[in-house]
From TrEMBL:
Pfam families: Con-6, TPP_enzyme_C, TPP_enzyme_M, TPP_enzyme_N. It comes from Humicola insolens (Soft-rot fungus). Transmembrane segments: none annotated. Residues 209-312 form the Thiamine pyrophosphate enzyme central domain. The lineage of its organism: Eukaryota, Fungi, Dikarya, Ascomycota, Pezizomycotina. InterPro entries: Conidiation-specific_6 (IPR018824), DHS-like_NAD/FAD-binding_dom (IPR029035), THDP-binding (IPR029061), Thiamin_PyroP_enz_cen_dom (IPR012000), Thiamin_PyroP_enz_TPP-bd_dom (IPR012001), TPP_enz (IPR045229), TPP_enzyme_TPP-bd (IPR011766). This is Pyruvate decarboxylase. PANTHER family: PYRUVATE DECARBOXYLASE, THIAMINE PYROPHOSPHATE ENZYMES. Residues 4-134 form the Thiamine pyrophosphate enzyme N-terminal TPP-binding domain. Residues 636-649, 663-672, 690-706 have a biased composition (Basic and acidic residues). Keywords: Thiamine pyrophosphate. Residues 620-706 are annotated as: Disordered. The keyword Magnesium does not apply.
Length: 706
């Protein structure tokens, strides 16, 4: 029997959809029939079906797959409830520009048995909602109901055309059981007529305008976000930066590898706050949502700003504007190549780009780059007490994992340290969700690995690149690990997961302090502001249970054990098993320090909780003023230092930075006299909680105090 459902799958396959991630229900009898028929009769010419016990994981897998390959895959979910189960994955696919086709059944539209597929179960009444597609339509490039089987293939192609045209994103199709059950004559669409819309480059005038501005600038800057999704863009940007010596590239989206860390123009990843933005006199914003955050950082008044984007209006965002003098809807790669060609081809511009001053600028850039890397290396040392931070962890991962590893990153407040530590240099090597819905990276990393293996096998290789997921502990729990590691084992998708265990959600504290730097919460404990995960779940254990025991699970809290455990985990993954390593990382101190979010915050040993205790707050402020582990160029801003000084004074604890311990000691930590004084003050302070006082008494007891 040839049904609309079978035609649907036939067209998915013909359009290059190799995988369908399914979570099935009562809307899918004809879908199940078609899957069995296709898998039996068309083996090798029918999509591979992956059972996904959770819809968000299903869509995140399709998202991860598309992020690596640019090819949309399909997700099948159950009516309205399955559509809602997609959850934040729909937002992520939309914001992160990942093409995905979602299909959901609708409750049957007949109840007397008029057509095959008519209502047969109680649930068909309960799940009949007024407009199912509206649940996700505002995120979708296209959302429609398939109303008849006779043009189901055209509907599939139209949806895929939207998904794959820039800006890429999710599309949603739904249909009643009766429509999908309909028997019909097989048919085929004309080949080669359904390609995505092509986007061109810039008009000649625009090319000239931008080339002149870059050539004439003293501090030219490119700010980018998604441009590296096209893996040819990083190379094109390198060509541009080699042509305009002194040009630097700042990544503000962190969703793709846009510019290699080993080029002198590399500024790394910063979320909208960086001095380069404040000082640049010509800025090219390239495929980017948030080049800077005006309340924290903005360009000079006289900066010449150009915005090139596939979606310069940001059509789905009610509030968005960049104060650029010119904006263009154009393809990033084509535009960059045009600008570079113009700069190289014009003798007038060449004259501006040559000369001794430019050479000096180039040398200065190289020196600055070296210093940046040295600073990162200095920050990546283990802590004095043998614990380690995310920077150290990632520098070890970079060393120990294969050079072409793909990093699937969802590290939230640790993201900058992960990026600094990994220093990606290969196109496609760094993939971050790009959206704001936590939980992407579980399914996302599986999708990336599935795609890497599939593409490699097509080329006759045994397996694809090594894939590492680096995820915050909070985000790990959002990712539905019970489903993720079951799928990893069931389908043999080995990924190394690194959990950044900083005992909960750090981000909400930072968000709080950006608005209420001196508010009640600034001095409240993590428990009190409800962001602590204490006691810590056994993250690796959760994954191991989901994988039926067939998973490498470990926990590390000392730098001395790190290399050994990582090596074992990497070996397990190389041998085909998933691995989860729960890493107890130092957390980054966000006390009431009014910190510029572009600055590097202080690391605090993981064994030290921020509990709102006086001694902890004081230590935080002292560390902010003078921390020997922080390289001198790190920018804990003057304002923040001044603020910390005032806070210390308010606590009757004036601080003389010249007394700061040097040689790697944490201020206050190694001087027993200092510690004891702080503890005693806590015990006698009426503002300190009984729990904190008890802790202080215990610590004092250990120090031999009364
Ligand atoms: C689905 C979803 N729910 C809630 C949030 C709000 N949120 C943003 S960051 C964050 C904490 C993330 O915790 P973790 O992954 O441990 O990273 P950390 O803050 O510790 O760096 C939360 C809850 C979100 N972005 N997405
Ligand atoms: Mg966390």
């Amino acid at each position: 029997m040839y049904t609309a459902s079978f035609a649907f799958f036939e067209e998915l396959w013909s359009a290059g959809v190799d995988h369908v991630f399914v979570n099935l229900g009562s809307d899918h009898p004809s879908i199940i029939e078609a899957m069995v028929k296709g898998s039996r009769d068309r083996n090798g010419a029918f999509p591979r079906i992956i059972t996904c016990p959770n819809e968000m994981v299903a869509m995140s897998m399709a998202d991860g797959y598309a992020r690596l390959t640019g090819k949309p895959q399909a997700v099948i979910v159950h009516v309205d409830v399955g559509t809602q189960g997609l959850g934040a994955a729909v937002h992520n696919s939309s914001t992160g520009r990942a093409p995905v086709l979602v299909f959901a059944g609708l409750s049957p539209s007949t109840q007397e048995g008029e057509l095959r597929g008519s209502r047969t179960e109680f649930i068909h009444w309960v799940q009949d909602v007024p407009d199912q597609k509206q649940i996700v339509a505002q995120y979708c490039r296209y959302a429609a109901e398939i109303k008849t089987g006779v043009n189901v293939k055209q509907m599939v192609r139209r949806a895929l055309q939207f998904a794959s045209s820039a800006p890429q994103g999710p599309v949603y199709l739904c249909a009643t059981r009766e429509v999908m059950e309909a028997e019909m004559e097989p048919y085929e669409l004309k080949k080669g007529c359904w390609e995505p819309v092509e986007l061109g480059g810039l008009e000649e005038d625009a090319v000239g305008r931008i080339a002149e501005a870059l050539a004439g600038a003293k501090h030219p800057l490119v700010v980018t976000g998604y441009a590296g999704r096209n893996h040819a863009v990083p190379g094109a940007l390198v060509e541009l930066a080699n042509t305009v010596k002194g040009l630097r590239v700042l990544d503000t989206g962190g969703s793709d590898m846009c510019f290699p860390a080993d080029h002198p123009g590399w500024l790394g990843l910063r979320f909208g706050v960086d001095d380069a933005v404040r000082t640049a006199d010509a800025i090219l914003v390239l495929d980017c949502d948030v080049p800077w955050i005006p309340t924290q950082c903005r360009p000079r008044e006289d900066a010449k700003i150009f915005h090139i984007d596939v979606d310069p209006l940001k059509q789905l965002m009610p509030l968005h504007y960049i104060e650029a003098q010119h904006r263009y809807r154009a393809d990033a790669l084509a535009s960059i190549r045009q600008i570079t060609a113009r700069l190289r081809g014009s003798s007038e511009l060449q004259a501006k780009l040559g000369g001794a001053e430019r050479e000096q600028q180039w040398d200065a850039l190289k020196a600055e780059h070296k210093k940046r890397l040295d600073d990162i290396a200095a920050r990546s040392q283990p802590l004095e007490n043998g614990e380690f931070g995310t920077g150290h962890l990632c520098s070890r991962l970079r060393e120990l994992c294969p050079k072409d590893t793909i990093w699937a990153v969802e590290a939230v407040t640790n993201t900058l340290f992960v990026h600094d530590g990994l220093q990606p240099t290969m196109p496609g090597q760094w993939i971050n969700c790009g959206g704001g819905g936590l939980g992407w990276s579980g399914g996302g990393a599986l999708g990336v690995k599935l795609a890497a293996d599939h593409e490699a096998r097509k080329k006759g290789q045994k397996k694809g690149q090594f894939v590492v997921q680096i995820v915050g502990d909070g985000s790990f729990l959002f990712s539905v690990p019970g489903s993720v590691y079951w799928i990893a084992r069931r389908y043999g998708i080995p990924v190394l997961t690194i959990v950044l265990n900083n005992k909960g959600w750090n981000a909400p504290r930072r968000s709080l302090l950006l608005v209420h730097p001196d508010g009640l919460g600034s001095k409240a404990s993590n428990e009190e502001i409800n962001i602590s995960f204490d006691p810590s779940p056994d993250y690796a254990g959760i994954a191991k249970a989901a994988a039926g025991g067939e998973l490498f699970a470990a926990r590390v809290d000392k730098a001395a054990d790190l290399d050994r455990v990582l090596r074992e985990a990497i070996a397990a993954v190389e041998n085909g098993q998933a691995a989860v390593v729960d890493c107890k990382v130092a957390y980054y101190l966000f006390t009431s320090i009014k910190m510029d979010p572009g600055d590097i915050p202080q690391e605090v040993p993981a064994s030290e909780d921020f509990r709102g205790e006086r001694e902890n707050i004081l230590r935080g402020h002292k560390a902010a003023i003078s921390n020997p582990r922080t390289p001198p160029s790190s920018k804990v801003s003057k304002e923040a230092k001044e603020h910390s000084r005032r806070e210390l004074e308010a606590y009757d604890e004036p601080y003389d930075a010249s007394q700061a311990s040097h040689g790697g000691k944490e201020e206050g930590e190694k001087d027993p006299g200092n510690v004891a004084r702080g503890l005693k003050a806590s015990i006698s302070n009426p503002g300190v909680s009984e729990e904190a006082k008890q802790k202080a008494r215990e610590k004092l007891g250990k120090l031999g105090g009364e």
